[in-house]
Structure formats: C-alpha cells, structure tokens
Amino acid sequence: MSRLTLLALALALAPLPAPAQRAPCPAPAEVEQRHLLGLWRAEFADHGPGATLLLEPHPEDAQGLRGAINRNGERALLAGDVDLGELTLEESVNGRNISAVWLGDVVEGSCGREIRGTWQAEGDPRTRSFVLRKR
After folding, report:
1. Is the Cβ–Cβ distance between 107 and 116 less than 8 Å?
2. Does residue 47 carry a pLDDT above 90?
C-alpha cells in the first residue's frame, strides 16, 4: 500500500472528535462570581443614561466582585457579591463612601447573563429599575 492509501485509511478509522460541549446554563441560584465577571451594560427603566460596568474578582474576597462603572465618562467604583441568584453591588464615587446600591436578581433562563433590580442613590428614597445584560 502506498503512504497516501495508508494515510487515508488511518484518517477514515480515526475516531471523530467529540462535538464541543457548551457549559451548562446555571439556574439563578447556581450563578456564582465567575459567571458575572466581564463587561455588562446597564439600562434604566426611566430611559435615563445607561452605563457600562466591568466586574472582576475581588482581590480580598474569593467570592466577591470588584469593578467600575462608566456613565458617559463619569466613573465610580463597585464592590459586591452574588448569593443564591441575588446580586448586591455598592457603588462609590470617591472610593471611600457608598454613593449608591444595586440590588438585583438573576433572570430565570438567562444563564446568568441578565439581572433585573433596583438602583438607589445614598440618601434618596427613590429607586430606579435597571436591567444588566452581559456583553
């Protein structure tokens, strides 16, 4: 047999690679810090200016989040966590005091890529509804 014939026979008999497996879609209560890392877009129900969030692992809390928010050039710091599908983020304009709080729930069927909740500025009794969508 020629080398070409042997190569064709070897390729024909070689097992096919398994199809790429997609990561399972976590239920809201199964969403962990690792699912939330990366870029997010925030939209508010009152159609005010949206924002871009970057969430990264917190260096001092293995399960925590740390990051930043950008609202058309205005920046603030973020820190928080997710527990049983509930996201809590604290926002700080000056890096020392809490200026706002985000409380949200991971949306069922979103695989941890959509969160809905409320945003509230410190000292303001009003809340704004938000939707976070992972980029």
Report:
1. yes
2. no
CA 115 – CA 51 distance, rounded (Å): 14
3 C-beta neighbours (distance < 10 Å), count: 7
Q: How far are the Cα atoms of 6, 71, 129 from residue 125, in angstroms, in the given order?
A: 77, 21, 13
Q: State the Rg of the chain over Cα.
A: 22
For the chain, the residue count is 135
Residue 43 — left, alpha, or beta (φ > 0 → left; ψ -120 to 50 → alpha)?
beta
Domain ranges of the chain: 3-134
Q: Specify the fold of 3-134.
A: Lipocalin (2.40.128)
CA separation for the pair 32, 82 (Å, rounded): 6
Output the pTM of the full model.
0.82
The DSSP H or E segment spanning 35 is helix 33-36
Question: What letter does residue 46 receive in the DSSP assignment?
Answer: T
Q: Are 53 and 42 in contact (CB under 8 A)?
A: yes
Give the three-state DSSP class for 50. Answer: coil
- State residue 46's pLDDT score: 83
